[in-house]
Write a structure and sequence with these properties.
The protein is an all-alpha fold. The protein is extended and about 90 Å long. α3 packs parallel to α5, α5 runs antiparallel to α6 and α6 runs antiparallel to α7. The protein has seven helices and no strands.
C-alpha cells in the first residue's frame, strides 16, 4: 500500500501540473488571437476573445495572488476595445459606481478610465465654457492619478497637454474640434500653404564624397555607408 501511494501521489501531482500547463497554453493562445484581432482592427473579434479569456480567469479571482497580472492585463484590453469603439461613458460608469470592479493597483486601467472620462465630457461644437469645463475635469482626474502614482509618465504627459490646452483656450485660442481617436491614429493633412518644391530632402549616399567638392545638396557628411548582405 505504501509503495502504491509512493507512486500515486507524484503521478497525481504531475497530472495536475500538466493540466494546469495545458489550460495556461490554451488561455495564452486565446489572448494572442484576441491581440491579433485588435492589431488588425477587428474589434468584434478582439472583444469576443478577451471576454472568453476573462471568463476563463474568473475562477482565479477567488485567490487574489493567482494570475493577478494576467487578469489585470485582460481587463485593460477589454476596456481598450470599448475605448477604441468610442464607448467612453459606459467605461466610466462601469468603473465609477460603488459596486464597480476595483482598479486599484492597475495603473494602465486607471489611465484608460481617465482618458475615457475626458472623452466622455467632450461635446461636438462645444462652447468655450464647455470645453474649459471638460478640461478642468480631465486635469483633476490626471492629477489624482499622479498624486498616487507620481512616476506614471503617460498620465504626466496627458496632464501637461490638458493644462497647456486649457491655458491656450482660456487666453482666447480656438476650441479644438472633437475627434474620436483611432488605433492607427488620426489622418494628418499637409501644412497650410505648403509648396513641395520648397522642401529639400537630404538623402545619404553609400560612398564617401567630400561636401566641399560638390554643389549637390543631397550629399551628407560623414563616413560612407557600408552595404550589408
Amino acid at each position: 500500500m505504501k509503495t502504491a501511494l509512493r507512486y500515486f501521489v507524484p503521478a497525481l501531482l504531475l497530472a495536475a501540473a500538466a493540466f494546469a500547463l495545458l489550460a495556461a497554453s490554451r488561455l495564452e493562445r486565446r489572448i494572442a488571437a484576441a491581440d491579433r484581432a485588435l492589431a488588425t482592427l477587428d474589434l468584434d473579434g478582439a472583444a469576443a476573445g478577451y471576454d472568453r479569456a476573462a471568463g476563463s480567469l474568473a475562477a482565479t479571482a477567488r485567490v487574489p495572488w493567482l494570475l493577478r497580472g494576467l487578469r489585470d492585463a485582460v481587463a485593460v484590453k477589454q476596456a481598450a476595445v470599448r475605448y477604441w469603439r468610442g464607448d467612453y461613458a459606459p467605461i466610466v460608469t462601469h468603473y465609477a459606481s460603488p459596486d464597480s470592479p476595483s482598479i486599484a493597483g492597475n495603473l494602465d486601467l486607471q489611465l484608460l478610465v481617465a482618458n475615457a472620462r475626458y472623452r466622455a465630457a467632450q461635446r461636438p461644437e462645444a462652447s468655450r465654457d464647455m470645453a474649459l469645463g471638460a478640461l478642468d475635469q480631465a486635469i483633476g482626474v490626471y492629477r489624482r492619478l499622479l498624486e498616487a502614482n507620481d512616476g506614471h509618465l503617460d498620465a504626466a504627459f496627458n496632464y501637461e497637454v490638458m493644462v497647456r490646452l486649457r491655458n491656450r483656450i482660456a487666453a482666447g485660442g480656438p476650441v479644438p474640434d472633437v475627434r474620436i481617436p483611432s488605433i492607427p491614429g488620426n489622418e494628418g493633412a499637409d501644412p497650410e500653404e505648403a509648396d513641395m518644391e520648397d522642401i529639400q530632402i537630404y538623402v545619404p549616399r553609400d560612398r564617401l564624397v567630400e561636401p566641399e567638392e560638390t554643389d549637390d545638396p543631397t550629399i551628407g557628411e560623414g563616413a560612407s555607408i557600408r552595404r550589408r548582405g
